[in-house]
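Intended use. Records like the one below are meant for learning the mapping from a protein sequence to its folded structure. Do not use them to infer anything beyond what is encoded.
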Amino acid sequence: MIKPKYFLYARKSTEDDDKQVMSIEAQLFELREYAHKENLQILEEFTESKSAKKPGREKFGEMMAKVESLNGVGILAWHPDRLARNSIDGGRIIYAVDTTKIVSLRFPTFWFEPTPQGLFMLQVAFGQSKYYSDNLKQNVERGIRQKLRRGEWLTKAPFGYLNNQKLRNIEPDPVKSKIIIRAFEEYAKGHHGLESMSEFLALHGVTQKSGTPLGKASVSRILTNKAYLGLTKHRDEYFPGSFAPILSSELFEAVQKRFKERSHPRKTKKGHNFPFTGLFHCAECGSMITAQWCIGKMGVKYRYYRCTKKKGKCKQKYLREDLVVLQLKEQLQKISLPDDWTDYMLRKTDEWNNEEKVSSGSLLEQIKTDERETEQKLDELVTLYLDGDIPKENYLSKKNELLKLKVSLTQKKESARAERKNWVEPLREWILDMKKAAQLQSSDNFFEIRDYFKKIGTNSQLRDKSISVSFCPPTEFAFNSKTISTPAEPRQTIARERADDFSKRVSLCDPTGNRTRITGLKSRCPNR
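Structure written out for the chain above:
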């Protein structure tokens, strides 16, 4: 009887490389030794690193095509599970044995003869291999579901987090998480695109392995990563995480809004970057104030500000930039407060801050109760879905509602804990702004002066070469208080009385126009 010639096949999976019993090199060495010992002639060797759980292996298909084109060949492999772990590939080999395309299968660890009993045992071996693969898949998926229920991160920590091996979860990196917060804050201001944000991140040490700045796609993934909200992702589905979020939902949504605004960016001409454009509008026709360069006497260049006249005829004339600065500094002088006033007021805010540290325990307990109930509903919803009691569409819809509620409760809890900051911190910031007004009177940084007036002022107008600025209630009160004459009393007493008067009469607005409480009073800045 003529001995058949053999195709040698060695395979290892791409998954769990460290758990493979034998590498391809080890299989090749053992199979060659076995072939030499048994005096087997090898036609060709095939090796590949690919899982056999699904059909479609290239090298296996190439080998089987050659087997089916010949008659009476054999296959040499380490074990039947190296050849197939799915029913299609296993059936293909068995059918080739039935049609005598394969007359011999040799395995150093498994006996086979092309008899009915041998085919039955081969089918059992393939069935065991498939059972192992299917069972392993179920065990892995079950482990993933349990990790998701516990809110654990499944893979390598995203930038800004660290993998905690003891907790089997992630936690914010003390340094990188601050870079993430800063990056989101900068992008939310609208001053950055993806390229400039890449440069911003590179300045803070966030680059590719080669040291070059990140690509646009990488920056986009960072700025849209919901993991920074405390959510974990698996197969395009988000789950509540048990790790601490890095960002607030307000800041994250502000960045997403910027993304939408920049989805169809307009092409703009290169500007001259005049410091006070966009700050004033014309009091006569309502058009915005623009700027241009003009050449004066002796060839000296000046920057002038004028009405754009886009809304019709306007008689307003030009105003030189140095005169704009002079008038703005006069406004600064009118609203700046004496140091003894602001020092006393800062001490007063410290007292209020200490009083507000005692937060409402009942409110926090109610929020925590609502959080526990939401968690329970999420667990019950997942169980219903896994048991097949509800369709996937209803499951995803209800799950998204509960996740939004969970994030909202988390934000409410943080707000309740820091309720005192809702008015004490903005008040402190406003007092410091009043101190800054005195500093800017001697500053030559026109952009800083412009940003300051955008923050504290509103309805800035230009008419007859004179500017006018309206202020929010606290700043307006500071403006009026400086015009009131006071008797000859000690300055410390005046400062105390004026500061106390502020605490009773002024309701502070933050730069966004939100209402903020001070000693029970409320107000709102004029529309900007």
